[in-house]
Amino acid sequence: MKVRIKEQVLEAILEAARIAYGNNREFMGFLRAENDVITEIVLPPNPQFNPTSASTRLDMKPLDPSIIGSVHSHPGIARPSQADLVFFSKFGRVHMIIGYPFRVQDVWIFGGGELEIVK
Ligand SMILES: [Zn+2]
Question: How many angstroms does the Cα of residue 72 sit away from the middle of ligand 1?
């Protein structure tokens, strides 16, 4: 599976993950796509909130059919927790975890997809 994403969106996600890490937090956002390309990150209503449970995250999901999945960062390796897997199974089709140190090659895609960066 190819996950197509705008270069500037990917850069914004990686930067947000780095900033969150510096503040001892995980970054979390929803992914919005147009014509199968991820074009925007939609932040949860309260960006200070650090969601850990799947049900809490679903409460924050905007009611918007262009939202196709989620992205969040981990302070260590990008391996999904049990809560992550429950969340991924309940909503969306594209889920990404960004592991430390938050470079393009630190992006993990649920289901084993590959990033395709679109200019
Ligand atoms: Zn996680």
Answer: 6
Strand partners, 38: 5, 33
Compute, in angstroms, the gap from residue 80 CA to the centroid of ligand 1: 5
Q: How far is the CA of 66 from the centre of ligand 1 (A)?
A: 22
Domain count, the chain: 1
Number of H helices, E strands in the chain: 3, 7
Place of tokens 């999945």: 69
- If you measure from the C-alpha of residue 7 to the centroid of ligand 1, how many angstroms do you get, rounded to a whole number? 23
101 Cα: distance to centroid of ligand 1 (angstroms) = 15
* Structural domain of 80: 2-118
| CATH code, domain carrying 8 | 3.40.140.10
Distance 40 CA to ligand 1 centre (A): 20
Report the C-alpha gap between 68 and 66 in whole angstroms. 6
> What does the pLDDT profile of the chain (119 residues) look like in tens digits?
899 999 999 999 999 999 999 988 889 999 999 999 999 999 887 655 566 677 778 777 778 889 999 999 999 999 999 989 999 998 899 999 999 999 999 999 999 989 999 99
